[in-house]
Amino acid sequence: MSEIDALPREEPHVGADVVEVELAQSLGLMEATTIGVGTMIGAGIFVLPGFIIAEVGPAAIVSLVVGGVIALFNAMAAAEVATGMPKSGGGYYFISRALGPLWGAVLGWGSLFGLVFASAFYMVGFGEYVHTLVDLPVWAYAVGMTALLTGLNLAGSKAAGQLQNLIVAVLVVVLLLFLGGGATGVRPTVLTDSVFAPFGLGAIMAGTATLFVTYAGFGEIASMAEEIRNPGRNLPIALLGSVVAVTILYCLVLLVCLMIRPWQDLTGATLVADLAEDLMGPLGRGAILLGAVLATVSSANASIMSASRISFAMGRDSLIWEWLNEIHPRYRIPHRAVLVTGGLTIGVILAGDIELLAEAAGLLHLLLYGLMSLACIILRGARPAGYQPVFRTPLFPFVPLAGALACFGVIFFMEPVTLYLGLGLIVFAVGHYMMWGRHRTEVRGEWPYFLRRGILEPGLERVERWGAVADEIPTAIVAVGYPEREQSRLRLAGALMGPMRGRVTVVSVFRLERRLDDDSVQSYYRAIEERRRALEAESRWVREAGATVRSHVLVSTTAFRGLVTAAETTGASLLLAGWPGHGPQARETALAESLDRHLRAHVLLFREDAPLPARRILVLVDSGTHGELGMVVASRLTAAWSAELTVASWVPTDASEEERSKVEDDLEASLGVTVRARVRALPGTSPEEAVASEADRHDLIVVGVSALEATSLHDAVEALDGLDGPSLILVRAHDAPILAGRPT
Amino acid sequence: MTPSEGSILVGISNPETAHRLVGLSMALADATNEGGDTPVLLVHVVPVANQISLSTGSSSPEVIQARDLLQRSADAALESGRQARAIVEVARNVEEGLLAAAESHEASLILVGYSGGEVRSKEEERFDRTMRRVAGKADADVVVATFRHPDHRSILVPIAENAPLRLTAKVCRALVAYTGGTVTYLHVTTPDVDEGEARARIQARLDSVDRSVEGELEVITSDDAEAAIVAESAEHDLVLLGPSGRPGLLDRIFSSRARRIAESVTASVVIGWRAEDD
Question: Could you give phi then psi for residue A672, rounded to 5 degrees?
């Protein structure tokens, strides 16, 4: 074997485009559980007991158990949807797919602000504890640490993530120390001699509302689903296990608190530290202080990171400004999202008190988890493609329904100011969706299918039969180089896809050099941004025709790979691209051949010679699938532009009159009653010569690859290259349904 | 413990050295199984910040560039007569990416390149740390290659007294097949040991290894084995440093003797290492 001298420098082998992209699943059961436990043992258990006991009395322990049961019910639903579609974005993703983009937007914003409120709550808790060491204002500590965490996130620090296991271990040890110390110093009579629920049931539920933020962290596991190994097994165990473990730990801590002093004496944000000092002296207080500081800082840091991810998930669905999600070209960090999250957290710290922050965070998480349970019911009923949860919620639908109702029910026990805050946020989210996201997003909820398949079960068979085609809303990719120069291609896409309300993704492939230095990265990003703006502006040609449009600048090292990736990602059934041959020959040949071999979609190659809209269209058909697709394309354009259509078939020059008449009769018969067209048998020594003979009588010619007796797109392109005058559309059909859709 | 024969995972990140790693991996695949069915995986890890989900990171420009590099590497493999699977592994960091890919594809050998310059940069320090952790956690042999010469006609293979030879022999077979070079085994013995006896022992051990590569055995006496290897390497194009045979060197393998030798010699260096070797 000889040494390989170098990698191939030209375009890659067209036959070997085998590069796969995998997401590293590096979180095992222990790591996933640690994430859940670590996020849940946040400020809540160190900061809230004093407030809750003052509000509820000894029955605060019931508030905790109720919160734990609600969390457990919702964790089961979360486990089902997360194993069914292990994607990032967590609750937002599941809800938007189940309930549609409006609720997705509401919950996306809700989750974002929920994390902001939670971060603020953790940071104020941090301030409360550190303030006992050095007497500076609590807000100063909270703001300072938030700024520091934001800075660390901007610098791309991974320290917090790597220390997570250690932090959780320290927290558990600290709490166990507290419990151990408490076991020696508790007096059960302190609890048994007290009135258990001095403020009644309402107070217990209000207590649950306030402390629910302490359970909020379990959703973090679901949002990391794509990184968990064997998610079918590990994800549900981690979710349920962490909720159960944390509930037990919380209850024990509260129980110890209630058996040390009369509940009337248990108040303040640093209650647990105060009691630890009573039990174990300054060392006990120090341990709790250490635990509280670690817990609050790590939870706040996790919240800032999670907020960026939700912002990204919303951005992917066009439900939030792309500007917010821009990645810093050098540090590869979503710097704006991090800065905005940090800024909002600081604003909220300065504006609210600790209980309000906890309750606001709890409200938004209750809403999130309640709707996630509903999403579980909807997705199981709708049975969307690819949704196959490994974990199935027991006692379905009772458990998710009870989880959802309990979440919504608890909300009503919150303070009016919290409810107004939540309502204001919902109004903002709905308003933003109506004005921004509604026209851009392609997300569709599964709830109509849930109603049809889950509720209207008796009509299932008929709906399935007729619905299969109608539901297949066609999706097309339109590839353009410089959008402002290629309006005709966009108008063509509008004419094809608009009348059937199709979905069109307009893609501009931006070729990326293989190696970039920092300076060229900056100029690349600027150029990409300019291209993106032009693309969005020119996409109006498609939008105005009635199609749903999304524009996208795709950065790729080769046009072919960019287009194939775009088609795969969007599940497009059709690609409309420009005519190859104007670039370097080898590259264009590779492009045509590669599209032929690798693209699982119909391909239309367009060359503009005569202006559009066309008035006289010729379609050359044959008996193959390519011809059928050509006929569909030509008849759509004819209808859209009120053009005249000629349907032709090639016959050899020496064909007799009889043979020509028969060809024309066959063509006439194949048209049926829906297409009005002239039919022609075109004589010629070859199909391309036959087409050329009609060139001056038409301004658009549509030809299927097989009608040219070509075996590939590349051969067909070469056959038509010399044809001047009319615009050309070369059609290559794929096995997929031809432009299946619902004409309107 | 010897890892079961699985796939060969090649970490591809540098376009300048990728072709050499591909070539060596092809030879390693043959050296592992002459039937030629040992799968070769070309893996490029794209690290993604914690603030971004992996799926979002999977559409970054870095992934596109990685696809291109891997595509060309796969093409190079194809041209040499073997199909290689190419994977962009999107991960939180390189260590996680390599380990996740090695586990999910049941790799029994991980091959990575290493710039190994004389002046150690922060990136090289990071690489050291990463590879130490990978070597410690992966259930696979780890081979680190530093290519400094265009041709490798002469390969020096230092053999310590008790060093395990399984991996050394396999990598040596692969290097010979890949470069066409000839092998010189080197044993450095201490003045208190009889050279003749040492030669006989080492030769016997080499003879006992299945499919070992034939080569001249040189035995020299020195108090400083490391300096002797460095001095001897001046006569060769490539030095293959196998597992040392001393347990507990996990934290030092890339930072102590092997690394010092790698930094001191002008020849290319290939280091083979296994956490719990035979």
Answer: 70, -155
